[in-house]
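Subgroup meeting minutes
Present: P.N., E.W., G.H.
Scribe: E.W.

1. P.N. recapped why we're keeping a running log of single-chain structure predictions: easier to compare across weeks, and new members can see raw inputs and outputs side by side.
2. G.H. added today's entry (86 aa).
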Amino acid sequence: MNVEDVKAVIRDGREAIGRAQEMIEQIASDAAETESAARATSHDSEHSEVVKGLNSLGQAIYETELTIRRLDEANDGASQYLAALG
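Output recorded in log:
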């Protein structure tokens, strides 16, 4: 594999990262809307299953935020490596 082949693989990876980011951002948006609707629907409920469900939604949103940050970092790293390759 020569340098140009490596660059092509990295570019393909960056495109895949971009597609993944779009999907995760949509998931994050959907989860936030779902959480908002669930909180409105279960207003002041202290039922254990409601609390568990809301906590799970909150955790899902947190995980999507972490994933978006990781994808951003991966994309940045790939960009830096491409620049270093010239």
